[in-house]
Amino acid sequence: MKIACVGAGPAGLYFAILMKLRDPRHEITVYERNPEGVTHGWGVVFWDDLVADLRANDPVTAQAILDRSFGWIDQVVDVKGSRPARGGGTGFGICRRTLLAILRERATDLGVEILFEHEIAEGAQLPDADVIVAADGVGSQVRRLRMDRFRTRIDLGRNKYVWLGTPRVFEAFTFGLVPTQAGWIWFHAYGYSKDMSTFIVECSPETWKGLGFDRRNSAQSLTLLENLFEDHLNGHRLLSHSDSQESLPWLNFRNMTNEKWHADNIALLGDAAHTTHFSIGSGTRLAIQDAIALAANLHGHEDVQTALAAYEQERQLAMLRPQREARLSAAWFENIPRYAHLAPPQLFALLLDRRSRLVSHIPPKLYYRLHWAKRIPPVRMLYRWAALGVEQLAGLHRRLSHS
Ligand SMILES: Cc1cc2nc3c(=O)[nH]c(=O)nc-3n(C[C@H](O)[C@H](O)[C@H](O)COP(=O)(O)OP(=O)(O)OC[C@H]3O[C@@H](n4cnc5c(N)ncnc54)[C@H](O)[C@@H]3O)c2cc1C
């Protein structure tokens, strides 16, 4: 089979690896617009479920990723001026650049051709192939070429966020919150190597404007953020890939879904097909799971159209839960003033339950009691029924407002 894959992110590269492992005779070319080794972002987190998927599909890649990962232990909520609350848990972090280097090396060893600095932006540039895989991320240009067929829907999140790095190594997954005269500002941080951490800063648009981020260049914004998070950073710097005279790359998260994931011989993969808010740390895992499903379906069916339809059906179903949880998690962070005044242990409990539809409907202090009470089986059962009921009403409301 002749396969063209647009985008050398985790989705495109892992898909190319799996196809070559299944049949080395496939001719696979990956087109990447960036030069080799250049990418956005810093480190990403993942958990045992991704490790299990990687091991089951390609133990070589799985081991290489684990060897270069950082194991973080514990989760911490650290509100300025209060004693931090701890909640347990473990996971992994890995530098995005390292992850991509591992996948590139494996793909190349298996015979995949990767063409860097090769952007596919127009229909005429679409390669001649049996299957074209659009793995070119959330802003996918390939998807835009068939916009009418995929029926893309993008909702912009309300909050502003910026993805930064820091040499302060956060051994625990840390949420740090700071009150300012313009409102709350907070970060999500975790170590991803022995000398670096990801540091994502988030706030409401009012706080963002109130603190003057709309007027400051990158260097000035980083200095202000270093001052605001001084207690959490222990004197370490914050780093951005942007030029110091430009503004920081603040964004509003793009919640994106597609009614169809395939059109003719084009299949959407990873962030080109769907996004899930970064606060659930799942985008890379879901992109890799798409790659696993697409490779399996292309090998499990005689013709490409049936394979792509089966892939779409399988993955759209699998995405329902993470997309719902991501929406709720993003909404929880958009509602932070409702929770931030709680004592850190209470705030932590509600943060852990942010993917539940009920958190936003029950007064926070009452919900905190419920958080503990649901350890009792009958309470847990009532809680689940109530959550399901509210979820169904919300689904109905969404469908009516979209129609
Ligand atoms: C702030 C933030 C934090 C995150 N943290 C986590 C986390 O902790 N854990 C996690 O699992 N996920 C996380 N994610 C999500 C994760 O980064 C993405 O879901 C994941 O990178 C998707 O992989 P992908 O291969 O589909 O797309 P991408 O990684 O975006 O790769 C797409 C590739 O296509 C290339 N490309 C784009 N357009 C073209 C074109 N026209 N022609 C050729 N090449 C092109 C790009 O240069 C890029 O290399 C986070 C996301 C954000 C925004």
Description:
- By secondary structure, this protein is of the alpha/beta class.
- It folds into three domains: 2-69 and 94-155 and 255-328, FAD/NAD(P)-binding domain; 160-233, no CATH class; 356-402.
- It contains 14 helices and 17 strands.
- It has helices at 10-22, 48-57, 59-67, 96-109, 141-145, 147-150, 205-210, 218-228, 230-233, 283-300, 304-334, 344-352, 364-373, 377-402; strands at 2-6, 27-31, 43-46, 70-73, 75-79, 85-86, 90-95, 113-115, 131-134, 152-156, 160-166, 173-180, 183-191, 197-203, 254-258, 262-263, 266-268.
- A six-stranded mixed beta sheet has the order 8-2-1-9-17-16. Strands 6-5-12-13-14-11 form a six-stranded mixed beta sheet.
- Helix 2 packs antiparallel against helix 3 (59-67) and helix 12 packs across helix 13 (364-373).
- It is globular.
- The chain starts with a strand and ends with a helix.
List keywords for this structure.
403 residues; alpha/beta; FAD/NAD(P)-binding domain; 6-stranded mixed beta sheet
Global mean pLDDT:
94
Largest sheet: 6 strands, mixed
Q: What is the highest CATH level, the class of the largest domain?
A: Alpha Beta
Shape: globular
CATH topology of the largest domain: FAD/NAD(P)-binding domain
Q: What would you say the CATH architecture of the largest domain is?
A: 3-Layer(bba) Sandwich
The total count of strands amounts to: 17
Summarize this structure briefly.
The chain is an alpha/beta fold. The protein has helices at residues 10-22, 48-57, 59-67, 96-109, 141-145, 147-150, 205-210, 218-228, 230-233, 283-300, 304-334, 344-352, 364-373, 377-402; strands spanning 2-6, 27-31, 43-46, 70-73, 75-79, 85-86, 90-95, 113-115, 131-134, 152-156, 160-166, 173-180, 183-191, 197-203, 254-258, 262-263, 266-268. It is globular and about 60 Å long.
